[in-house]
Design brief:
The chain has 260 residues and is of the alpha+beta class. It folds into two domains: 82 residues, 2-Layer Sandwich (Alpha-Beta Plaits), CATH 3.30.70.1070; 126 residues, Alpha-Beta Complex (endopeptidase fold (from Nostoc punctiforme)), CATH 3.90.1720. It is 33% helix and 22% strand. It contains eight helices and twelve strands. The strands form three sheets. The protein has a six-stranded antiparallel β-sheet, covered by helices on one side. Strands 3-4-2-5 form a four-stranded antiparallel β-sheet, with helices on both faces. Strands 1-6 form a two-stranded antiparallel ribbon. The chain is globular, with a radius of gyration of 31 Å.
Amino acid sequence: MNGFGAKIAGIACLGAIMILVGCAAREPSPVPRPSLPVQPEVRPQIKLLGYTIQAGAFSLLDNAVRLTESLQAKGLDATFFHDEDGLYKVRFGNFASSDQARSRAEGLQKEGVIDVFYIVAPDQYTASQREIRGEAYVREQIVNTAKSFMGLPYRWGGTQPETGFDCSGLTLTAYQLNGYDLPRTSLEQFQAGKPVAANRLAKGDLVFFAVHKKSAVSHVGLYIGGGYFIHAPGQGRVIGVDSISSGYYQSRFIGARAYL
């Protein structure tokens, strides 16, 4: 090979090397695939109660109901309950501090709305023990609270039962007496909870029904296990237990919600 041919051959080899090196240098990096949006976990929207006020100690349910209604008329979220000592008592409010609760209570005391009162601190509620004693314990206490109303008349008030205002009084009370600020009406409770499949119900979950209008939440009960729920069934009836699988409630079942 003459000098010119060798020069051409050398250039060709050099070009081949440059092409190889250049391809390696320009090897495209993997095209990033668009990531799927992360679906946030649906979490319950209820909050823990702060400081609340307890007032009244009545032997008659009607007296506790009257006090509850007078406090509700003042815009306070009041509820009554049957205490372990056999007396009916009333709790109301949700205050950020003990001083705020006491100031409100003293004002109502001066107005003659309440007499003796007691400030309930957040750490006195079952909810404060969840991290120590576990969720199952809290659920059991909520169920026990609801069961303490068994046999009592349907007395949470409300003039429009299709809104689910009355029946939700039981579920609201069961949660509030354990330190959870559950919304007032059955529709609000339905919207605030985390959806639960019917075959995964746990004690303390709420079950919802359409008893007035098709597909419209108008009734709520509290699941107590074994396929049963406790609820305030309607005017003229007492608080009791029914089966979700019974013909009437099964055909009207809309869904269930969890809050813990």
